[in-house]
Amino acid sequence: MTGDPGGVDDAAKVGSLSIRLGLGWAKSLSFTTGQCPVMKYNRQLMQAILFDKVKIADAVQATPITLDEAPKGYADFDAGAPKKYVLNPNGYVK
């Protein structure tokens, strides 16, 4: 995990996670980690997006932009703007 200078506590600022295991144990919680199996869902999700069954921009609260608008989107991102963009070179994402 990377550090976050604006983290809520000292541990978060250096990329650590403080967990009180006793509280989790008392409530019978489980904690797992690992990578998401993206390839298992990638094709189905892409087809759903392309055939307009899933409104991806709405789902992730992003703004679709063209390739011509990409430099401005990257500049906004680098400046810390609280926006998400989806590159939409062919106009498929709605």
UniProtKB/TrEMBL annotation:
InterPro entries: NAD(P)-bd_dom_sf (IPR036291). This is Threonine dehydrogenase-like Zn-dependent dehydrogenase. It comes from Pseudoclavibacter helvolus.
